[in-house]
Amino acid sequence: MARIILKCPYLKGGEKTSAHLNNLVKYIATRDGVEKMESVHRLWHSTQNQQALIVQILREFPDTKDLFEYEDYCENPNRGNASEFISIALEQNLDQISGREKYLDYIANRPRVEKFDTHGLFTAGNAPLVLSQVAEEVAAHTGNVWTPIISLRREDAARLGYDSARAWKALLSSKAMELAESLKIHPDHLKWYAAFHNESHHPHVHMVCYSTDPREGYLTKQGIRKMKSSLANEIFRQELIPLYGEKTQRREELKEQAAEAMGELICQMKGGVLVSERMEQLLIHLAERLQTVGGKKQYGYLKADLKNVVDEIVDELAKDSRIAEAYRLWWEVRGRIESVYTETPSEPPPLSRCEDFKLIRNRVIQEALNLGSGAMTFEEPVSVETALPDATPDDDTPAVESAPDSTPAEPEDASEPPPAQSFSSGKKAPTSWWTEEYKLAKQHLHGDEAAGIPQDFEKARELFLAEADKENPLALYDLGRMTADGLGCEANADAAYGWYEKALAVFHAAEEEKPWKYTEYRIGKMVAAGLGTEQDYLQAADWLTLSANEKYKYAQYSLGGLYYHGKGVEQNHETAFDLYTRSADQSFPYANFELGKMLRDGIGCEKNSVEADRRFKEAFLGFVFLEEKGHDDKLQYRLGWMLLNSVGTEKDEANAKEYFKKAATVGNPFACYQLAKLILSDETASTPEVEKALGYLRQAVEAENPYAAYFLGKLYEKGQHVAQNTAEAARLYTLSAEQDNDFAAYRLGKLYLGGEGVLKDVEAAIRWLTFAAERKNQFAEYVLGVLYLKGEDVPKDVPKALGYLKRSAGQGNQFAQYRLGKVYLMGEDVQKDIPAALQFLTAAAEQGNQYAQYTLGKLYLMGKDIPRNKESAVRWFTLSAAQGNLYAQFFLDHMDEFKDPSVLLAGTRLLHHMSRVFADNAPPLKPPGQRADRKLLRRLREKKQAQGHARDDHEQTMSL
């Protein structure tokens, strides 16, 4: 592998080294460049004198082991290789055995130096150099003089074009500014000279560098590393492109190799307890000392003695076997990666001195402050407190998404022939509307397996048109419905309105001829839905009342719906319940279904789960009977929904899927949505099945089903079954939210708030979250409450925050209850209120919130804000621990071992915090670079600005 070697010794200024520097300048500038013939003796084994000298050189100058020549000698210890190693080793350490003048003379005049004139010395620019003047100048310098030596292998130098002095002059001129930065010298003060020695195996360059300001400049190991990296990046520019790819692959391999072991250690830390008597003593000592310290109580502001205490605590923490092993593994991976960039990876410092883990020091200080103040601490995952947008249950699907209420609540034609009615005029009696031709058209519309008639929309439309010519209002109505839904023809809302208008006119004509409960019902239904006329609930209620008073069960049911929702009449659940009961007692399944819901929820009546179940069962049997007669897609959807949710029947997912398939075949958007959900929830579903399900889902979205848009949006947001596409998720959520789906608005607000995959837009997020909160979405109320409480993305507004949190808590949101409990317990944003805190914490705990359970257990155990009650503490800790809460289990295991658990708990919290630190700190992908001096960087920026560069211009630095 191609490499570059750079050595950078220096000579201190003064009279003692003045003559040496003068000679050195002359030597490197005038050395003879004669090419010597290879001697056969060079291939003989090295002599004893050579071997002894090499041993002495290695003892006095250990870093010469890094030279190419030493590698050659070790591989083949002959006289030639021994001679070259001895020569270059002594040459590179002349600064330690002679003076400046001698060194400069040596590098300018030694054999095989490439001369420009009478010597080989060069610097930036084209002005000729006078060797004696340069030598005197360097010899007279009173500051430090650095003497870098840059070496390449012969094959690398020849291949890459660095086998001539002109190539090296161009390279070093272009890198002068970076050289000055590495040496901590202002670019205007840098002076450098060099000479190229064209050795047979390893051509190299000698340099002399110093600052015109004797007080300026120093070089560190990091500076040497940075200097070497800069030169190597330029020399091996083309070859480094594939090499970087190899390094990236190697880094990934190393990370993968360590991931499993590191993950196991992190899990051990997360689930472990740390017990250290020494750490407890140090934490107590630090807590006491910090109480007497003023100013900022952060590591960087503490005095040295307190910093030492913090460091000792961190290093005591590092003695834990889990942390020690994780740190060893972390540094091992870092070192293996670093070895790609450097020959001598750095040794691991103590944990307290590792820059990548310095955050733990302030965490130690915070724990000590908590101990000193006796403040209540909340041991919980970071996500509970900081991952605001995700602090809700994963399954936030709206509870009413699949309720059949979203479809027409009863068959539009009552699914049976109109009741008998005699007419005095000579007109045909309305009972003749239910003709054999009309019945056949209905069979073709829905399909009749028993009669062997397949579903055929075109044939049904043809028969309905024939009946329409006879002014059959039932056929006219069905033509309106088919035209609106695009069955057997193109969907056309205007044309559908025309068919409905004609049907309504015939119903009115029949009613004028003689009042009739059936026509009154049909007119009331059409007026309520705005079919063929303007929608008018008040007028609809009048028509339905006329029919209901005649004990017509369909009218009773429809009028009950108006009273239930308060449309056209004053809302009255008791009246609705009475009307539903009168309709259900006439064996109308839709009324039985509504009665089941009201009895289940105690709306308009006393709760009665037994009677509710009976009504649901009667409804299910009635729906089965009606579906077998008419094969209506809305009935099929209802039956599928009831089977899926075990309402009125046993849960039967397979049978539910069959009903949904039947309804989806004719494009029922609710059935398409439910069928897609069933297929996608099946882990064994094949790829073709998944694709078909996605097709159903998109079909439902096109039919403006808000729940389908919401569900498909979640798939895109999470990348399930489709490629993750947050922008598409946001589009679908918007479609759903615009149809009044508060859950879609809630998730849309979260997307804009998080800004992952979509542009972060706090204003839009607040708008959609408020939209959802106004519709009493408890999750949106919770998120808004936390936002206004934290005051990060929006101005802090504690009253508004408490308002939203209380509204959410009032709907039973355990997260809002827990957050309110913390607020009143801590007393930071509001006045401390222990009774209120207990009320909210208990409400959350009773819903199974493990953090509220843990907090209550801790309160009862500590006995600070409430009377100590060990039995209550054990009960709440037990419930929390059963959900995997490690801190609750910690207290249960150590209940009788100490009076105040705060100190021991602090150590365990630090252990768990370290698990997060390791999880968040993957080993660095490259070794830490040199930290540039801020003052020097400022001067460099000023110089660039003076040359016409913009303040933040990152254009490649030009050579001096």
Automatic annotation (TrEMBL):
SUPFAM superfamilies: HCP-like (SSF81901). It comes from the Bacteria. InterPro entries: MobL (IPR041073), MobP3 (IPR048102), Sel1-like (IPR006597), Sel1_AlgK (IPR050767), TPR-like_helical_dom_sf (IPR011990). It comes from Lacrimispora amygdalina. Residues 387-428, 920-960 are annotated as: Disordered. Residues 943-960 have a biased composition (Basic and acidic residues). This is Sel1 repeat family protein.
